[in-house]
Design a protein that fits this description.
about 190 residues, alpha/beta, 6-stranded mixed β-sheet, 7 helices
Length: about 190
């Protein structure tokens, strides 16, 4: 088993929480894991990117080479396109469809959607709306994780158990909200 994942978005969207949940699930399965993070401008609204490598064999580097990523999980649609050169030809992009416009020359969403239509393996969903509609507004990132579950190759129940461990100190209500969010994302996966 080997899965190389790029997680990206902007500061404050919960990218690092997704990485923590995936890492927790992988460690409980006695898999090897390496992670490297980049925090753009180290502030809310700056670029955040994480390389997360999971394998049943030892991992030498924490960085993913060009064309080496199996999955890109992005909280922001333009950010995923930034890392497209790292995606392998059979790789998946799972992204939010809602832009986080934090720069003056942000591209038109129709242009971004046209770029996605050229790709074979994309799940683009409006996680922000789904989170609000389902009364889990602070768990949009976990909805995205649920949508990425099959592409990650991690069993659903392993992610659910990781959520319970990661959020346990925040109380049962937070754990339940995030488990609900994971289920919402899983339901949004295409039947492929």
């Amino acid at each position: 088993m080997k899965t190389d994942i790029i997680l990206c978005g902007v500061g404050g969207q919960g990218i690092l929480s997704i990485a923590t949940i995936i890492g927790e699930a992988a460690m409980k399965e006695n898999l090897y894991i390496k992670q490297a993070e980049v925090h753009g401008m180290s502030q809310r609204g700056g670029d955040v990117q994480s390389n997360l490598r999971i394998s049943s064999n030892p991992i030498n580097s924490d960085l993913i080479a060009l064309g080496g990523a199996d999955v890109i999980i992005s909280m922001e649609p333009m950010e995923a396109l930034r890392y497209l050169p790292f995606l392998n030809k059979n790789g998946w992009i799972i992204t939010s469809s809602a832009p986080f416009v934090n720069i003056p020359n942000y591209p038109d969403m129709e242009t971004i959607k046209a770029d996605y239509k050229k790709l074979d393996h994309v799940i683009m969903i409006d996680i922000e709306s789904m989170a609000k509609e389902n009364n889990v507004p602070r768990s949009a990132n976990v909805i995205l994780l649920g949508a990425a579950q099959k592409a990650l190759g991690i069993e659903y129940d392993k992610l659910e158990a990781a959520i319970q461990r990661v959020f346990a100190r925040k109380g049962e209500a937070i754990v339940e909200q995030n488990i609900k969010a994971l289920a919402i994302g899983k339901a949004a996966q295409p039947n492929t």
